[in-house]
Design a protein that fits this description.
Layout lengths: L12 H12 L10 H19 L7 E7 L6 E3 L4 E11 L2 E4 L1 E2 L2 H5 L13 E5 L6 E5 L4 H6 L1 E8 L18 H12 L8 H21 L19
Parallel strand pairs: 5-6
Antiparallel strand pairs: 1-8, 2-7, 3-4, 3-8, 6-7
Helix pairs in contact: 1-2, 1-5, 2-5, 5-6
Length: 233
């Protein structure tokens, strides 16, 4: 048996949009899309990608870091950060995990800039343009000179703004994206055959569910009681 030895397959946006229209029977093999069909397909594709961007994906986890400033509790992080999942403060190459605050927990703290010390808690406030990471307690000048903050964040998925853009997905997601794009396009380009419409809906769900189960770390989860506030009566 002779295989290609190649493992990379990266169809561009135009190919994926054409494939979705082919599924619906709107575009025939070898037939070019009309400008209107391409515009509708690209818009639906970007809407689909941005909706799925709200779900955590393994390949969208990235690392960021910044240096502390004495007396400063707020720090703007990467504009690509959709959510910060964890933080560590680092001293001499040693990382120590920090506790995640909710919005209410952080803003309920009465002494945000008083009694600065080593930050051990964080709260991430996502914004439309760029998010802000709040640290508590506020870093002291001494802590700022010794420690740095390192954080893990879920980044936005890239949009596609040209016909030759590739998906910001692993190639295993090409089929789920194509079927789900076809499903979205059915509202504008209805399928006359009810059985075909059900096939599209079923394949869109089946391929997505198959990949979303794979999109998890194969690691154990350990649960323990929350202890940062001390024992409860």
């Amino acid at each position: 048996m002779t295989t290609s030895g190649a493992i990379t397959y990266e169809p561009v946006a135009l190919e994926i949009i054409t494939g979705a229209f082919n599924v619906l029977g709107v575009a025939q093999e070898g037939e070019a899309l009309t400008p209107r069909m391409y515009a509708d397909g690209l818009r639906a594709l970007n809407w689909l990608v941005q909706t799925w961007s709200a779900n955590p994906h393994l390949w969208t986890l990235e690392e960021g870091s910044f240096n502390l400033v004495g007396g400063q509790a707020e720090y703007v992080v990467s504009p690509r950060a959709l959510r910060v999942t964890s933080c560590r403060y680092r001293l001499n190459g040693i990382d120590t995990p920090m506790n995640m605050f909710s919005r209410q927990e952080y803003f309920d703290q009465p002494n945000k800039l008083v009694s600065p010390s080593i930050p051990v808690n964080f709260y991430f406030d996502p914004k439309v343009d760029e998010g802000t990471l709040y640290l508590w307690p506020c870093p002291s000048t001494q802590a700022a000179s010794q420690y740095s903050i390192h954080y893990t964040f879920i980044r936005f998925l890239d949009v596609m703004d040209a016909s030759n853009n590739t998906l910001d997905f692993p190639q295993q997601w090409i089929e789920p994206v194509t079927w789900n794009l076809a499903k979205r396009l059915m509202t504008q380009y209805p399928v006359n055959d009810p059985m075909m419409a059900q096939l599209v809906i079923g394949q869109a769900s089946e391929t997505y569910n198959s990949l979303i189960q794979w999109d998890n770390e194969p690691a154990s989860i350990y649960l323990q009681p929350e202890t940062r506030w001390g024992p409860r009566a």
